[in-house]
Write a structure and sequence with these properties.
Length: 327
């Protein structure tokens, strides 16, 4: 029987062509906007597999209507939009695309760190607003990053690449905290594992690279920001709900920390009147961490290969819930 694949967005063609070569019947959403959940459910009802992304809510409501699916393959490294526990209970394997975007996202984190340290976004806006005036020896001063301490929450693939960039460019000391220790990264980077409170107290730059879980949701709140250095830079390129946005704005306004660089916001999209956008020590991007040609092409390929290998040999190269395949 010809397998029917619902593709929820217009993903890069490299992965789509792989699926077509295997003679799958593809239904590709042809609009720029995301599918509503009702549209996604109605479409998935008549398909065997789903290729989706973070904007798609694969929650209980969806899964109870679409428990017939053979596989869900996510075009993303994260999967907090998917009720993985319920998918597992229903016997649906969930694929994802790890490491395809590690370099791209680490570049964004590294770039935001430099941009915040030197107030780049704010200074760019002064030119647009016609405020580039005379030389002021003490005006709009930033800070240098040499020999500072980088703290990382979640020293996984992306966190390691961020740490490598900071170590090589600025000879930064590396501290980290996470659910488990990364002994290989400790040897590679001379990184030191510390408790979360020490991470807050000792980091000059604190970069978030962990998953969004109940334990990490809004872990960076008013209490956390109060324990950070007044010269500290907060970077979040992971998930917006890991930080409490109003607390972050207050912490910067009251000079509890130096500033922030965000590629993710809480909520998304950020409203254009958000006070963070007007702060001189804040740089914000619209969730473009994986936004390179190379990363998106590779994500498309990995998401497609998860589906192809599942139907060919019953295995999924990158799977979130491997226990499903053991049944």
């Amino acid at each position: 029987m010809e397998k029917k694949i619902l593709v929820s967005r217009q993903f890069p063609d490299k992965g789509i062509q792989l699926l077509k070569k295997e003679n799958f019947h593809l239904t590709i959403w042809d609009k720029q906007r995301p599918m509503t959940q009702d549209e996604l459910i109605e479409g998935a009802k008549t398909h065997h597999a789903l290729m989706c992304t973070l904007t798609d809510r694969i929650d209980r409501h969806f899964l109870e209507h679409c428990r017939h699916l053979d596989i869900i393959s996510q075009f993303a490294v994260g999967y907090d939009n998917i009720d993985v526990a319920l998918a597992t209970r229903f016997g649906i394997p969930v694929g994802f695309t790890p490491d395809a975007m590690s370099d791209a996202t680490a570049d964004i984190a590294f770039g935001l760190m430099i941009a915040v340290a030197r107030k780049m976004f704010f200074l760019h806006k002064t030119i647009i607003q016609g405020q580039w005036g005379y030389f002021n020896p003490t005006g709009n001063l930033g800070m240098e990053l040499n020999h500072k301490t980088l703290g990382i929450l979640g020293l996984g693939r992306i966190g390691v690449k961020m740490a490598q960039r900071c170590r090589n460019a600025y000879d930064m000391d590396i501290l980290y905290h996470g659910r488990t220790r990364n002994m290989a990264a400790e040897r590679l980077l001379d990184a030191r594992y510390v408790e979360f409170d020490d991470l807050l107290l000792k980091s000059d730059v604190l970069s978030v690279h962990c998953a969004l879980t109940p334990a990490t949701k809004e872990i960076f709140n008013g209490s956390a920001f109060k324990r950070m250095k007044p010269s500290a830079i907060f970077i979040n390129t992971a998930r917006g709900p890991i930080h409490h946005e109003k607390d972050l704005a207050r912490a910067i306004a009251e000079k509890e920390i130096w500033g922030a660089g965000l590629d993710v916001t809480n909520p998304e999209p950020m409203q254009p009147d958000n006070p963070l956008l007007a702060m001189e020590n804040v740089c914000i991007l619209p969730h473009v961490g994986s936004g390179t040609i190379e990363a998106r092409n590779q994500m498309s390929v990995l998401a497609a290969m998860n589906i192809i290998e599942f139907y060919k040999i019953g295995q999924i190269p990158h799977i979130v819930n491997p226990e499903v395949l053991k049944r």
